[in-house]
Structure formats: structure tokens, C-alpha cells
Amino acid sequence: MARMKFVCDAERCIECNGCVTACKNEHEVPWGVNRRRVVTLNDGVPGEKSISVACMHCSDAPCMAVCPVNCFYRTDEGVVLHDKDVCIGCGYCSYACPFGAPQFPSQGTFGVRGKMDKCTFCAGGPEANGSQAEFEKYGRNRLAEGKLPVCAEMCSTKALIAGDGDVVADIFRNRVLRRGKGAEVWGWGTAYGSKQAGQPGVTAPEGAKS
Amino acid sequence: MKKIIFTVVLVAGLSACGDQPQALETSTKDSAAYTGTGKAFVNQDWKQGDKASWESQLKARNQYGQNDYTRMN
Questions:
Q1: Is A129 helix (H, G, I), strand (E, B) or coil?
Q2: CB spacing of B38 vs A143 below 8 angstroms
Q3: 20 to 30 A Cα–Cα from A33, which one of A7, A116, A179, A208?
Q4: What's the pTM value of the predicted model, to 2 decimals?
Q5: B58, A148: Cβ pair inside 8 Å?
Q6: pLDDT tens digits, residue range A118-168?
């Protein structure tokens, strides 16, 4: 099995925020904490693009690199998780993360600087799989139930795909081939400088799709 | 004799120059997802604890749940 990955198809996302709602409901995430958000560029302008963003479970995670107490760990499936018993709520991961994934609850024992909370790819935390302690700290462990992240499974347009990286890539590739456009996953041109994914600031040739 | 003592002191002194391992490691242990929750409230299409069946279950779920081309056609 490849690493677990998310991909959001900007051609399909309709900014319904169903993924955000599903995530908050499934994990009973506290008020003020959004593990997942929908970001829209050129909102209100024809041709606007939206994507759903959460922790991307980076292969070389910057949060992991900067954490002074090493509270992060990576599962065999490539899911980046953290141990709230070790986290000191310093916020370094928040500055390091390019996606704004780390969230800090403003209510609870630690006041305005609570222990970090983020998307777990519905994989829970270090507590026993499916236990009450795990649910209270990290939310539901759907992977251990043989299910995929609820945000992707609830997505009405199937813009958000989550699962085994190979399968996710295959579904997306097939989709792009069928519709004949939209291969440029939002932000990839900027992040990786890929010509195939489209370079930022370069005018597309006349007649080119998307 | 002096040479031996000098060598021993030298080796002992050099050992102080050793670097501590700086690899990113955490002491946190988590049980693998394929081990399941041990509860009934799981998808029934796989056997808890069986890694191969867990993987194939997730791949199948990916296809029938998120690949609408296979669902429609």
C-alpha cells in the first residue's frame, strides 16, 4: 500500500463546506477549531476556484521537523499524527505548516493556547484504537474501522478524494482523461514548478483548456 | 606503560566528542490501523487484524465510494 493522500479537484469543488461540517460532526471538534477549511480564489468572479484544505500528511512534514518536543509521528500508511500528551502548545508547527493545518483550541485547561489539534486522516491518535480516550482527544478512528476519511466520503461532488495514494492518483488521472482538462491540481505549479501542472504567471496558449 | 595509559586516556577523551543521534524520533507508539478497534461498529467487509484484507477493503471502498466513473458506467 502506498501512502495515504488527499487530493482536491478544483474543477469539482463547489464550496459547499460539506467536508468541513462532516469533519466537525464526526470528531466533535470544538467551537473555533477547523481541521478542514474550504479556500476560494477570486470569490464571486466567474471562474473562481475552490479547494478543501486540511493537513496534507506531508512525506517530509515541516511540523515534525520544528516540533521541539517531537510529539509528531508517522504511521506505516504515511499519516502524520501527534501525541497531545507530549504537545506543549508552543505553536511552532503552526508557523511551519504551509497549509495552516495546526489549530489551537481557545477553550479548556490551557486557555487561549491549547494543545494543537489537526486533521488525523480519521486515524485517531496513540491511544487504543476506537477507545473513548482516543475519541475525546483526536476524534473517531475510521481507518481502524475499515473506512476512509469522512470528509472525502461525504463530498457530494467527489471533488475531495482520500485514500491510498496510488488509487487516488488513478481516480484523478482517469477523471482528467475523461473530461480532457483540469490536470493542474491547484497550487502544484507553484509548489513543484511542474510544467505539466502549469506554471504560475505563464499565459496559457490560445485554445488551451483550463 | 606510559604509552598504554596515554592511548587509553586519548581514546576516552575522543569518546566525549561523539555526537548524540539527531534523527527525528518519537517515543509515541500507536497500534496499526489494520488491527481494528475490536468492536462491532466497523465495516464488516474485512477481518480485523488481517492487514491484507484491510488494504484490499480500503482500495475497494476508494473505488466504489469515490470513483464515480466506475459507479455510473
A1: coil
A2: no
A3: A7
A4: 0.82
A5: yes
A6: 999 999 999 999 999 999 999 999 999 999 999 999 999 999 999 999 999
Reduced to 3 DSSP states, what percent helix, strand and coil does chain A have, rounded to the nearest 5?
25, 15, 60
Amino acid at residue number A38: V
Q: What is the largest CA-CA distance in chain A?
A: 58
Q: Do A178 and B41 touch (CB under 8 A)?
A: no
- Measured at the CA of B58, the angle between CA B57 and CA B64, to 5 degrees, comes to 90
CB contact under 8 A, A130 and B39: yes
d(CA A198, CA A79) in angstroms, rounded, equals 28
Q: Do B43 and A147 touch (CB under 8 A)?
A: yes
Measure A202 CA to nearest chain B CA, in Å. Answer: 32
A41's grid cell:
480564489
How many Cβ atoms are within 10 Å of A88's Cβ, its own excluded?
A: 14
Contact (Cβ atoms closer than 8 angstroms) between residue A198 and residue A207: no
The answer to whether A26 and A67 have CB atoms below 8 angstroms apart is no
- Chain A segment 48-107 residues within 8 A of B by beta carbon are 64-65, 70-73, 75-77, 81, 83, 86
**Amino acid identity at A153:** E
d(CA A72, CA A70): 5
Q: How far apart are CA A41 and CA A50, in angstroms?
A: 6
A173–chain B Cβ distance below 8 A for any pair: no
How far is residue A195's CA from residue A125's CA, in Å, rounded to a whole number? Answer: 38
